[in-house]
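Lecture notes, unit on binding sites. The following record was shown on slide 14. It pairs a sequence with magnesium ion.
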Amino acid sequence: MSVSTSIELDPFKLAQALSGLNFVAGAFHPAASGKTFAVNNPATGQEVARAPFSEKADVDVAVAAAKKAQKEWAKLPARNRGKLVAECGRVLSEHVEELGRLIALETGKALRTESRIEASVLADMFVFFGGLASELKGETVPFHPDMMTMTVREPVGVVGAIIPWNVPLLLMAMKAAAALVAGNAVVVKSAEEAPLTVLRVTQIMNTVLPSGLFSILAGFGPECGAPLVEHPDVKKVTFTGSVETGKIVYKAAAEKLIPVTLELGGKSPMIICADADMDKAVAGAIAGMRFTRQGQSCTASSRIFVHESIHDEFVARVREKVDAMVMGDPLDEKTDIGTIISDGQFDRVKSYIALGRETKGATEIVLSAMPTDAKLDKGFFVQPRIFTGITNNDRIAREEIFGPVCCVIKWSDFDEVIAAANDSDYGLAATIWTTNLKMAMDATRRLEAGFVQVNQNLVVQPNLSYGGVKASGLGKEASLESMLEHFTHKKTIIINMQ
Ligand code: NAI
Ligand code: MG
């Protein structure tokens, strides 16, 4: 099975070329069973390719190849590994346009506002981690003058990485680049909704990396994800997805006593103070809510607490700006907002909108406009929504919707709003907009979240530790710390020189 690595800007053609394949043990293969499932274009509902329905037999092949390759990889000087990982980033950077188009096709995320950006961050993540190889250092310990006591960082072995569909390129890069530089092999299970672009990335990476070191399997959770977590030669699992599945993964890892990193979503608060710079806060709220991605983000600022004195003006300003956004074909450069990923998520989001309507005191504000192009009739488009007049106790303000549904809640007392922001099962991100530095500092200390921002709304950045507290997960990603703590073991060595 061969697929050209030449840049292919027609995503439909590329999807066809990659149809039905995994990239395992250095080459393309279908699933051992020959079974496949459909990959659909969420903008039209049409099938664009098949993906292999991988099962335990496929996991076994990938892990065996990874185990073999890892032994040799770990023997390379760290900087040589780093150079190869950085080289993956360089080669991937040549494919940004191609990857951006393919991810837009399979996920429905708008090319201009989302998909192209994700593809370029992917390449950047590999370059960043490649440069960190020399930081895999140990320490010397002043234990005894006649004993040389030191620590070294060793790889864990084969890492199993399970990723979701919302930002598969970025999430795969954060996990894979760190794990590889640290001397591990990686087997990825892609999300059933978005298996194609990560497969293409794996193919491209394999033009640089040793055979078998980095493999990818498409498949479903119970049939492919579970056997990967349970495989005796997988020594670490890193997972991004729902809380429910995160707990299943954590339990399976506990049976084997292996470490896990879990990134599990949120219901992130954003607090807008009366003295905030209104223009910036409005733009920040729209960016934070990820309206251009149909709100499908674990860090989405989906609970916005607005001071009562500016509440109405703030809502009106957000409304005006989102109304001006164009929802349409993800591959069209004019499009600001693409689609929801799948029929399942579409129904889930619709059910939360219905719940919002039934919520006591709620006012529903419907934004932007449905696409008019008839070929998009069956697409999973949802008009963004704001619900006002609700409280932090209402279900729509407590449960992760993972859609373009934003809860705006009025506040008047600073202590009360901090308490309400923290009154959530989740603790991934939090944001405050204020020009009062003292208030900002106070909030950053008191907000229970792993990623707190003042007067801005950046997404994940290389070298900023990313990860949540409470139900949002365990461990950090994207940073030096994440590589050292989550993809290595620290070994203590004592040499008695007497
Ligand atoms: P999910 O957590 O079920 O899926 C994430 C990944 O886990 C996929 O690759 C899936 O195949 C895999 N998986 C499922 N069951 C598994 C098992 N038993 N063992 C091993 N792997 C397994 O999330 P799903 O169903 O795609 O979305 C449901 C909800 O989860 C969303 O509405 C959203 O609220 C949340 N979610 C959060 C994400 C985040 O970034 N934190 C990403 C995706 C979903
Ligand atoms: Mg699921």
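Take-home: The chain has two domains: 11-264+472-493, 269-462.
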